[in-house]
Amino acid sequence: MKSASKTAFFCSQCGYETSKWMGQCPGCKSWNTLVEERVVTGLSKSSNRGSLRGALVAGEHTKPLALKEIDLVKQERCLTGIRELDRVLGGGIVAGSLTLVGGDPGIGKSTLLLQVCRNLSLVNKNVLYISGEESLAQIKLRAVRIGEFSDTLRLLCETNLAMVEAAIENEKPEMVVIDSIQTMFMDEVASAPGSVSQVREATGVLLRLAKGLGIPIFIVGHVTKEGTVAGPRVLEHMVDTVLYFEGDRHASYRVLRGVKNRFGSTNEIGVFEMVESGLREVENPSEYMLSGRPVGASGSVVVCSMEGTRPILVEVQALVSQSNLGIPRRQAAGCDANRVNLLIAVLEKRLNVPLGGCDAYINMAGGIKMNEPAMDLGIVVALISSFKNKAIDEKTICFGEVGLSGEVRSVSQPIARINEASKLGFTRCIMPEANLAQIMKESAVPKGIKLIGVNSVVEAIKAI
Question: Which of 102, 137, 320, 368 has the fewest Cβ atoms nearer than 10 Å?
Answer without folding.
Answer: 137
